[in-house]
């Protein structure tokens, strides 16, 4: 089936969405983006927390001084139209804004900005997601606000993530865990992290220079709705080894159990009970089975 990309307000064939190889955002990593998911439900396909993702997209643009040329309502509508055009029951959605200009130089003031929206079929981010993944604490630290704005989803920020993930996989792990500049647990290369200790759900606070994930906030709300105490605070590295359970959370990763950190097994090397309970709650929510959270769904 022919797929289409929304490109500056018009649909173009997937294979025809092209830019020059010297485009500023390719050379310098100056683009900003979002990652959003569409899920099938009993009432049809629905985008999960679309408004929150669009708002964060515009926040990233504001941080980097990018004038998108479209309103939030316009981008929201374009995302829905893209999904309808491509007739996908479930998809990963990628809004992306970039400097569509081949002139050399860091300056951006006079450079053209383009916005695209792509929607592609997408399954599990990790091949062994259900069984859990093995992680390694990276020697590369998470960047902080003295260096780059960690709360913006900018292309350049993810060079930090890529090098950490590469190190972990070269060492035989599935993914990295990154520490903040002051040595506290921050997050994964593309995921927030949660720990379970003595029946409590613990996650690094904003002070660890994390991305304030939309899936992260979803998990906190879901946990509280089923009576799980949640604590947002600084997390010491050694807690990764002594906690009862751990898992990643993100739009792409969804909830992915962590079964070992630096070869130290979690829960006997199997996903823990709270991780599985929250994973079930998350899956039910995104597939429209929890009426109390139906407002998080935008039906296509």
CATH class of the largest domain: Alpha Beta
Integer count of domains = 2
The name CATH uses for the topology of the largest domain is D-amino Acid Aminotransferase, Chain A, domain 2
Helix residue percentage: 25-40%
The whole-angstrom Rg is 19 Å
The coarse silhouette is globular
Q: Note the gap between the termini.
A: 19 Å
State the CATH architecture of the largest domain. Alpha-Beta Barrel
How much of the residues is beta strand, in percent? 25-35%
Low-confidence parts, pLDDT < 50 over ≥5 residues?
Answer: none
Mean pLDDT: 96
Record field, number of beta strands: 17
Order of helices and strands: EEHEEEHHEEEHEEEEHEHEEEHE
Largest sheet: 9 strands, mixed
Structural class: alpha+beta
Describe the structure.
With 300 residues, the protein is an alpha+beta fold. The protein folds into 2 domains: 4-120, 2-Layer Sandwich (D-amino Acid Aminotransferase, Chain A, domain 1); 133-286, D-amino Acid Aminotransferase, Chain A, domain 2, CATH 3.20.10. 26% of the residues lie in helices and 27% in strands. The protein contains 7 helices and 17 strands. The strands form 2 sheets. Strands 8, 9, 10, 11, 12, 13, 14, 15 and 16 form a 9-stranded mixed sheet that branches. Strands 1, 2, 3, 4, 5, 6, 7 and 17 form an 8-stranded antiparallel sheet that branches. The longest helix has 15 residues, at 72-86. The two termini are 19 Å apart.
